[in-house]
């Protein structure tokens, strides 16, 4: 079965794909912190920040359509939060765009501020996962001293989420093949409950056998992994470029626009 | 001559009271290739798990000269490599390289020794180009070969495989036969596919309802239509033994 892998472009080759995952992770964290720290009524500065991830996506050969599609997929959560601002920020504001004057409220400003921050940080996140193989990302997290248990859990999640999705599809297909009519709410819920139960039991059985496979290969409770990473000249260059870009925005452009 | 695997009067009952194995006695010589055949529920997989020290039952199991006890699991699992039926359960790491390195790392291998072991094994199974791939990007045949590689990397003396040919198309099955035929290890293959077993094994043990019901040369056992049909099996079509 084919899945829409979030890292399907991570196996390409480009200057950003070749960068060390630790560097990309650190830059992402700093970038996200700076974007989040933008005051809640500022908008134009966020467009400047968007240049960074946009450049990475272009250099990495990641289609913008792919990035925007993933932003749309996760947007419902943030849309609820953003549009709720409209209802409690009712102080009037007048905005002037050259010859145009728009009468609005602080709530709408906050709403667009949240949405813009979301889009910019998501672009950066997609730029990271689309230019870094998930395994490299995990190794980067491990080298940056993120607790090993968390890294291992992320690894298992990534490894088995698709196996689980396959199981769900198989169960749904099996049901569709035999369910020829609407059975009524009670029966539908009962069937859905049985399907979830079946999925849970399958997952537990899979977990048991994975544990067995690990023990069969000498696993004794300590998770040992092999990783060999080194910082190359390109990484220093990327660090310098990212640093200059963020400093330029933070020290020069940001005070002028806010 | 001590056997690679020696099982004496081994019995095992599941916690719900179902008798899975009953008074099993077997001796497998080093380098021997043995097919464990039988219908579903005969106890083949349970016997493989008992060999790898996952089940504690009555009787005695000796692997490569070491009796299986609760205290020497690490030694036993270094001697016998267990390949599970579903490769998705065998391949749990983010990349194939990491998966193959998992066993050797637990054995204490590091640095150049570790990488050369992993590279050698991947070359043996023909997956050198796939080292950095995630397991879910491999085909069914490649996953099967990868699952065998994860165990071969620990240099076991014995390879125990549970239905290694399941869900494989004829081309992948042929590739698997060629791979296994080139290995020096003692092979114990649990399978329901007589043709697959016949292509690889010189000896066959028939199991049914938790008991060994026949043991002998694969060619003789698998062409005994009465024996095969009595135990829900089919006669091998083309024997190569």
List keywords for this structure.
A: 258 residues, 2 domains, two-stranded antiparallel sheet, 8 helices, 70% helix, B: 241 residues, alpha/beta, Rossmann fold, 4-stranded antiparallel β-sheet, globular
Helix content of chain A: over 70%
Radius of gyration of chain B: 18 Å
Shape by Cα distribution of chain A: flat
Largest sheet of chain B: 6 strands, mixed
Approximately what portion of the residues of chain A adopt beta-strand conformation? Answer: under 5%
Low-confidence regions of chain A: none
Assign the structural class of chain A, choosing from mainly alpha, mainly beta, alpha/beta, alpha+beta, or little secondary structure: mainly alpha
User: Per CATH, what is the topology of chain B?
Assistant: Rossmann fold
- Could you spell the SSE succession of chain A in H and E letters? HHHEEHHHHH
The top-level CATH class of chain B is Alpha Beta
Number of helices of chain A: 8
Helical stretch count of chain B? 10
How many β-strand stretches of chain B?
A: 10
The span between the termini of chain B is 24 Å
In the predicted model, the low-confidence regions of chain B spanning at least 5 consecutive residues are none
Distance between the termini of chain A: 50 Å
Strand order across the largest sheet of chain A: 1-2
Note the main sheet of chain A. 2 strands, antiparallel
- Overall spatial form of chain B: globular
Could you give the order of strands across the largest sheet of chain B? Answer: 6-7-8-3-9-10
Give a verbal description of the structure.
The complex is a heterodimer of chains A (258) and B (241). By secondary structure, chain A is mostly helical. Chain A has helices at residues 21-36, 44-59, 64-88, 106-131, 134-143, 148-178, 185-216, 233-257; strands spanning 92-97, 100-105. Chain A has a two-stranded antiparallel sheet. The longest helix of chain A is centred in the last third of the chain and has 32 residues, at 185-216. By secondary structure, chain B is of the alpha/beta class. Chain B has one domain (5-230): Rossmann fold (3-Layer(aba) Sandwich), CATH 3.40.50. In chain B, 37% of the residues lie in helices and 25% in strands. Chain B has helices spanning 44-51, 73-79, 87-90, 96-106, 111-124, 140-152, 170-181, 194-200, 218-223, 225-230; strands at residues 5-13, 19-28, 33-37, 58-63, 66-67, 80-83, 158-162, 186-191, 203-208, 211-217. Chain B has a 6-stranded mixed sheet with strand order 6-7-8-3-9-10, with helices on both faces. Chain B has a 4-stranded antiparallel sheet with strand order 2-1-4-5, covered by helices on one side. In chain B, helix 5 packs across helix 6 (140-152) and helix 6 (140-152) runs parallel beside helix 7. The two termini of chain B are 24 Å apart. In chain B, 51% of the residues are buried. At the A-B interface, helix 5, helix 6 and helix 7 of A face helix 2, helix 3 and helix 4 of B.
């Amino acid at each position: 079965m084919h899945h829409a892998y979030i890292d399907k472009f991570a196996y390409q080759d480009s200057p950003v794909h070749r960068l060390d995952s630790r560097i990309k992770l650190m830059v992402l964290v700093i970038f996200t912190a700076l974007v989040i720290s933008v005051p809640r009524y500022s908008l134009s500065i966020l467009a400047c920040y968007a240049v960074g991830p946009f450049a990475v996506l272009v250099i990495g050969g990641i289609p913008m359509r792919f990035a925007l599609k993933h932003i749309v997929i996760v947007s419902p959560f943030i849309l609820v939060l953003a549009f709720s601002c409209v209802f409690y920020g009712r102080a009037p504001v007048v905005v002037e765009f050259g010859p145009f004057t728009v009468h609005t409220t602080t709530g709408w400003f906050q709403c667009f501020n949240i949405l813009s921050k979301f889009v910019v940080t998501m672009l950066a996140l997609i730029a990271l996962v689309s230019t870094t193989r998930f395994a490299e990302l995990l190794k980067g997290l491990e080298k940056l001293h993120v607790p090993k248990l968390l890294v291992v859990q992320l690894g298992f999640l990534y490894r088995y989420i698709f196996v689980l999705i396959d199981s769900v599809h198989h169960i749904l297909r099996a049901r569709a093949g035999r369910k020829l009519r609407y059975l009524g709410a009670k029966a539908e819920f009962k069937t859905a409950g049985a399907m979830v139960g079946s999925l849970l039991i399958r997952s537990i059985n899979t977990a048991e056998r994975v544990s067995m496979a690990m023990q069969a290969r000498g696993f004794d409770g300590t998770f040992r992994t092999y990783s060999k990473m080194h910082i190359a000249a390109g990484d220093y260059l990327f660090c310098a470029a990212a640093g200059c870009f963020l400093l330029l925005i933070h020290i020069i452009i940001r005070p002028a626009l806010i | 001559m001590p056997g690679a695997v020696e099982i004496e009067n081994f019995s095992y009952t599941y916690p719900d009271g179902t008798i899975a194995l009953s008074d099993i006695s077997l001796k497998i010589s080093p380098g021997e290739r043995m097919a464990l055949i039988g219908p579903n529920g005969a106890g083949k997989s349970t016997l493989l798990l008992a060999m790898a020290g996952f089940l504690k039952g009555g009787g005695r199991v000796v692997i490569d000269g070491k009796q299986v006890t609760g205290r020497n699991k690490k030694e036993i699992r270094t001697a016998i490599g267990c390949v599970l039926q579903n490769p998705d359960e065998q391949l749990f790491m983010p990349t194939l390289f990491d998966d193959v390195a998992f066993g050797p790392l637990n054995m204490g291998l590091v640095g150049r020794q570790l990488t050369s072991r992993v590279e050698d094994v991947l070359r043996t199974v023909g997956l050198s180009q796939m080292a950095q791939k995630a397991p879910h990007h491999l085909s069914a045949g490649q996953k099967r070969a990868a699952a065998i590689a994860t165990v071969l990397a620990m240099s076991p003396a014995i390879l125990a495989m549970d239905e290694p040919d399941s869900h494989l198309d004829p081309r992948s099955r042929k590739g698997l036969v060629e791979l296994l035929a080139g290995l020096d290890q003692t092979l114990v293959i649990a399978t329901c596919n007589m043709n697959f077993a016949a292509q690889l094994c010189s000896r066959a043990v028939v199991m049914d309802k938790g008991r060994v019901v026949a043991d002998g040369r694969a060619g003789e056992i698998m062409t005994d239509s009465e024996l095969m049909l009595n135990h829900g099996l089919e006669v091998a079509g083309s024997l190569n033994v």
